[in-house]
Amino acid sequence: MTTVSFEPPYSADRIAQLLDWSRSHQTPCPAAELTHLEHLAGAIAASDAGAAADLATKLEAVRTDCAGWLRAALLEASGCASDAAAVLHLLREKGAGEERGSMMLASARNLFAAGRMDEVWYPLREACKASAAPRTLRNAARLLAQARKQAEAPFRRRCRVALLSSTTIDFLPPILRAQCFGHGIDAEIYAGPFNQFEQEILQADSGLARFLPDIIAICTGWRWLGLRDEEGSPGEIVRERVARLESLWREARARFGAAVIQFNFEVPAFDAFGHLSAGLSGGRGRLLRAINLALWEAAAHTQGVIILDVDQTAARFGKDRWHDAVMWHTAKQYPSAEAMPALGHQLTAMLRAILGLTSKCVALDLDGVLWGGVIGEDGLAGIKLGGGPAGEAYVDFQRYLKSLAGTGVLLAVCSKNNPEDALLPFRQHPEMVLREEDFTVMVANWNAKDENLREIAAKLNIGLDAVVFVDDNPAERSRVRQILPEVEVPEMPADPALYVSTLSRLGVFETLTITQEDRLRTMSIRENLERKALEASAGSVDDYLAQLDIKVQLLPFDEANLPRIVQLINKTNQFNLTTRRRTDAEVRALMTAGAYTQAMRVRDRFGDSGLTGVLIAIPEGEGLRIDTWLMSCRVLGRRLEEVVFAALVRYAAESRRKNITAEYIPTSKNHLVADLYARLGCTQTNCDGDRRIFRWNTDHGFPFPPMIACEELPAAIEV
After folding, report:
1. Is 408 part of any domain?
2. Is the CB of residue 351 less than 8 Å from the CB of residue 187?
3. Which of 96, 150, 157 is nearest to 121 (CA)?
4. Which run of H or of E encompasses 127?
5. CB under 8 Å to 543, separation ≥6 — which residues?
6. Whether residues 274 and 405 fall in one domain
7. CB of 321 within 8 A of CB of 269?
8. 536 inside domain
9. Could you tell me the CA-to-CA distances from 169 to 201, 220, 221, 497, 580 in Å, in that order?
């Protein structure tokens, strides 16, 4: 595209030329053109306010997106923020990528200037998610800081993140702050001094020690390793470098109880040895790969340590652009300023995983998403699936989704289709990779997609903010974004060959571990639907529970179950009395300090639900205080809370504890358990704002439900 250029003075003829250009320019403007038009509008308004107002009025009748953007920019430059926001509201859902980021940021900026604070957060969040441009993200971070001075921003989690680097990464904190906001994270960021990450962790009076981080990112660049082109003792070097980092992990975990994100090492694009750098036993390229593998292995055996794959991130971004030799020699900046958003995006994905914000479900349209064509019109033989480039792309996407389901992500169908047509390919097409049993919920009807997404979330008992909606229709995507802004709606490309990379780049499915419960989640959800069918046919709740043949095992926390326990603590929202998030180091500290811990495993006639309940109670004075109590939504409605509480009461009595105190701290998602302690018979003793305190005297026992078989592996009884 030829960039339109109009230099001052802005005569009537020049303004007329710009108006003609706007009328003839039918194609969407790329981000660079939007920026240029924005600057041009500012220059016109500064030079001749009357000409700017006149041009804005004339552009109102021009129905192109570029004309709308120019009009909004003229109105903003003229101080008419509310009018500019109205124009941008019609444009902001039309763009994709950087264009969407620019339009969303302009919308948020004008809404802020107009004082419409409640409307600022959505476009600002979308700008932070859509853009990978350093300038846009830095501007978004500045607007976020300004907006937070006037109103409370919506966040799902808060955390304190320390960036400790062997290089200069001063450009990263504002970019990361914006990207975290895009995903609902309030990130307070500390950037340690250049190349002082070891001292920061080890010294008692360091800035890190004063900051008290929740998460520490050790941002080491490959040069820190000090590797020569070829080393004589490669095995010894790998062991020494990895051991040095492992020592820092242990110290960071012991001193701060923080999760540690360790950057691995980019294999640089340029090496004097060329391809032999990876071929020679002591070549630097080979050593870097060996060190990276050793870091993965070490982290797998160290609780609370996660490896961020910088080498993969750099390769995806493009290693020639990842490194800026001029800025390295000038300021020791690494990676390049251009690459900082890619690094921040991957770091944000890791933070999401640590904070329990991994997306739980992919809701998929069918026509144009899982196969080409329209099954209701083209028939089984007419859809594109295998047998050629386009059809093979859909097969490849299905394979990706099936693998994703293997990590615990739930698959659902959300399609406008006749149900019998929708099921036909799953049952009869030989090239289908996905089958009915791979989906937890299949909703095919002619209702609005937003209604069906609500139904899917309700059936799965998850929040809408845990759902990713994939649809090839821009109109459907736009409608869902506007009606259900909490749902993640990626902008899908026209070519299905790009579906896998588009969904993968979101970074919303990153997880810290894959447990057995994760691998069996789809089966578990389907079993739950069978339980609901049984419940509907049973005469009473107790009759239903008796028919389920429930068997519960209660056991103290142990090493084998700790990853799943920590995962539940950080992901469970609905049945969660306090919603306290804990790192594994914090859980270990509570175990060491003598807390009562109880993990619950559940199985019944339909299957094994696995480890789905957690309780932690802390000795205080003559009693116990329930610090954490949560259960997975998959096992609710079975009187299991009575089993858990009965076991706790018995333990407290046997330990000569006189009472149990408990608290309910309300959140936006845990209203389900607002009356739990009252239903159990506890007495409310205090109310501190929304926080309510309850007590149970242990001279009163609490009965186990008779229709549930419970096996207890005893916790240590205090004497």
Report:
1. yes
2. yes
3. 150
4. helix 121-130
5. none
6. no
7. no
8. no
9. 18, 11, 11, 35, 32
In DSSP terms, which residues pair with 553 in a beta bridge?
601, 711
Question: Is the previous residue joined to 474 through a cis bond, with omega within 30 degrees of 0?
Answer: no
Q: Whole-angstrom Cα distance, residue 680 to residue 546?
A: 21
Same domain assignment for residues 305 and 174: yes
Domain shared by 445 and 548, yes or no: no
Among 354, 384, 407, residue at a domain's last position: 354
Per-position DSSP letters for 283-298, written without gaps between them: BHHHHHHHHHHHHHHH
pLDDT at 713: 67
Residue 667 lies in a domain: yes
CB 444 within 8 A of CB 418: yes
**Containing domain of residue 176, as a range?**
157-354
Q: Report how far residue 274's alpha carbon sits from residue 555's, in angstroms, rounded to the nearest whole number.
A: 56
pTM summary value: 0.79
For the record, the structure tokens of 387 come out as: 């047998």
Tell me phi and psi for residue 96, to 5 degrees: -140, 155
Q: What pLDDT, on the 0 to 100 scale, is given for residue 390?
A: 82
Q: Is 363 exposed, middle or buried (0-12, 13-18, 19+ CB in 10 A)?
A: buried
Among candidate residues 601, 437, 433, the one with its CA nearest the CA of residue 526 = 437
Q: To which residue do tokens 């099921």 refer?
A: 423
CATH of the domain at 572: 3.40.630.30
Question: What burial letters (b/e) apply to 589-624, b meaning 16+ CB within 10 Å?
Answer: ebbeeebbbbbbbbebebbbbbbbbbbbbbbeeebb
Q: Looking at residue 9, what is its pLDDT?
A: 59
Of the three residues 148, 179, 202, the one that is the final residue of a domain is 148
Q: How many CB atoms lie within 10 A of CB 702?
A: 20
Are residue 31 and residue 58 in the same domain, yes or no?
A: yes
Q: Pick the closest to residue 588 from 201, 254, 202, 246 (CA basis).
A: 254
Question: Which residues face 629 on adjacent strands?
Answer: 615
Residues 316 and 202 in one domain: yes
pLDDT, residue 4, reads: 55
Burial label, 61 (beta-carbon count in 10 A; 0-12, 13-18, 19+) = exposed
520 located within any domain: no
Tell me, what CATH number does 201's domain have? 3.40.50.1110
Say yes or no: 188 and 316 in one domain.
Answer: yes
pLDDT given for residue 714 in this prediction: 64
- The secondary structure of residue 224, as a DSSP letter, is G
**182 shares a domain with 141:** no
Q: Which two tokens stand for residue 510?
A: 């990153």
User: How many independent structural domains does the chain possess?
Assistant: 4
Spatial distance between the Cα atoms of 439 and 460, rounded to a whole number of angstroms: 11
Residues of the chain with pLDDT under 70: 1-11, 26-27, 713-719
Dihedral of CA 275/278/279/281: which sign?
positive
